[in-house]
Queue: 3 jobs
Job 1
Amino acid sequence: MADQATYTHGHHETVLSAHRWRTVENSAAYLIEHLRPGASVLDVGCGPGSITTGLAERVAPGRAVGVDAAAGVVEQAREAAAAGGPPNVEFAVGDVHDLPFPDGAFDVVHAHQVLQHIADPVGALREMRRVARPGGVVAVREADFGGMVWHPNPPGMDAWLPVYCKVARGNGGEPDAGRRLAAWARAAGFADVRSSASTWCFATPEERAWWSDSWGGRLARSAVADAAVAGGHATRAELDGVYAGWKAWAAAEDGWFAVLHGEIVCRA
């Protein structure tokens, strides 16, 4: 999923649990109006395939293909699909900068939380456009970490964002990708670009517990934590303090967290 960059999050369970939670409804609702029965869809950076499966259901009997650079995650997606997924979904190993498909192969080319992790998002968009049919759709949704807000802010928790951004940029990515999507798309040669925004919100006790385990947990235990320590951005003790802050936030009765996303729909 990256060219001259490292996938910052890695594939720790704290990360994959968040990936498996994603659906068309909560992560690609802006794309639904462009999905029709019989269409062909490519899901770039598909992870464990939860969004890809939902896309397949919406375009059946059309074809939905998920690609990801991580072979182990692709195998997880295949296993999940074999255990009860729709028959029109398939998965393959592939790099967003060199997709293994001919020109114009898909009606819709989609990516969720991919461009923020790569060194050349404009080149990736050009490659996504290449495999979209003329008149087809290229659609991307990316979080914007500078637009994330939460309440309350217990001691230690506010350190997570600057640490994460240092790690992400050190790996060649851009955590404030959401606000840059339209500019990247125009630089990639798209003339017809429609922009929108949407959010995730975590506020119930169950949502707060899960979100704090996902993000507080990855700051303490995942590849993000390892890179933060290796890069001198935080010590293990400091990251443990960040995790404690996340858990205190989750325990707060009025805890609330919003994640802003930028979205684009481009005509090929």
Note: The chain is about 40% helix and 20% strand.
Job 2
Amino acid sequence: MSKGLNAMQDDMADPDIRRFVDAINAAYAEHAATPGASMATRREVAERVRRPWREGGPIMAETREMDIEGARLRLHRPVADEKLPVMLYIHGGGWMLFSIDTHDRLMREYAARAGIAVIGIDYSLSPENKFPVALEECAAALGWIAAQADALGLDADRVLIGGDSAGANLSVATCLLQRQRRHPLPIAMLLNYGAFAPEHTPSYARFGAGDYSLEADEMDAFWAAYVADPAQLVDPLVAPLRADLTGLPPAFLAIADCDILADCNHEFARKLEEAGVPTRAVTYQGATHSFLEAMSIAPLAQRALDEQAAWIRDTLKI
């Protein structure tokens, strides 16, 4: 969490995104968990801090809660009585935090703007549940969507996958796992400031001290908690930047310019293009990690959502 910019530094963040980051950090300071607090307490604090940013936004024609093999799902439909394409959305939070509640507005925004259904998944969190538990749950959700599509009024032939940060990681890893098992792939990937490899890059040094949302030490702790053995960090299903990306679905990458993961995202976009995957990578100047959650106050986040929705509609030929 941000420690505050030195007054002598140049702040590269968009002013509205800076307001968002500062508000998040003030809320964490207000609701701070005591040192050594349990994961349950840390998650409760994170939910409380994010609550104001999930409120408001589009009203859905239908919102339905469902369960699959212990994982909670939430379906948002922007219109009723119509067979809709669907996106499985996988929330971020370093595989340790957040939920379909913290990301509820973001999912509703995609549903309303793109004219699609969105299903969010509350996958099992680390460190209690190590790799590959969350990954297997996301893959199972894709199978469940295909099996239940007719009953839910969804188009099984137009299924996307998307996520932010750790959720973007899981989105790509799910596609890799589907390809490995010769199962159907989603037709597109929406990847927001993804965590695709654990190695530090120059953007870590530039943005990782805590002034731009996600800290370097924080990200290292997330990676360490996700795996049972550090040797797993080289597994392409853990670090998709190491994977053969041939045959993956078309991708939209929203890259936050002021993010420790910026370099990793640029490299991942380059590798997708080298593998022949149709790729649109957009760098949002002045954006920090998690900037899409600032949609209620930041035109930059609104623009990114509009551009992504237009790409979804174009990809789906809606």
Note: Residues 133-152 form the longest helix (20 residues).
Job 3
Amino acid sequence: MGTVDRMDWQPFAAMNLLRNPFGELTREDRVRAAVVDVADCIDRLQQPQTALQFIADCGRGKTTHLLSIAAQAPAAAYVYLPEDERCPPIPHGQPLLIDEAQRLPWLVRRRAFARGGALVLGTHVDLTGPLRRAGYRVWTYHVGQDLTAERLAQMLNRRIQLAQLRSGPIPQISDAEAADWMARHGSDIRAIEFDLYERFQQQIGVG
């Protein structure tokens, strides 16, 4: 009797997957899964007293942009500001990346902006005013407004590829399916990924 590869006992092995591709990702895998071009951002951050702000509601990709920039800047420091919790210490970095920057307490924000150096902010509100008062030249990106079904399909399929078990076919999201998801959730990628997580769980009889 032949032996069975232990990986074939994994719940998603029948789909040639190691895991549910829409589960929580590590920071490194989030960067690997990103479908963003931050080359112009990196160039702009070479200019003195420059701030980039990525504005959007939750789930549109602000964090993905920040982490993608941080991955290309060895001296960068990234900090996430949790909701309804005490503000964590603001690190030093070049650039300094602050996720959910709208949660910065006024005095902490003033001190952080007064340091100088490059800033990258993920925020729900436009912080152009306080940034300019601190002497920054500001570049603003409205995340998610240019999302297309084709790009969404590429993003979702990148997640699936990261979970691939071995060479061979894996599930794919078509452009038409991506368009259907956008019809339900608009540009809320997080909501789409949550629904896809549940769908993949159902396919193995869990959930």
Note: The beta strands are 50-55, 77-80, 96-99, 119-123, 137-142.
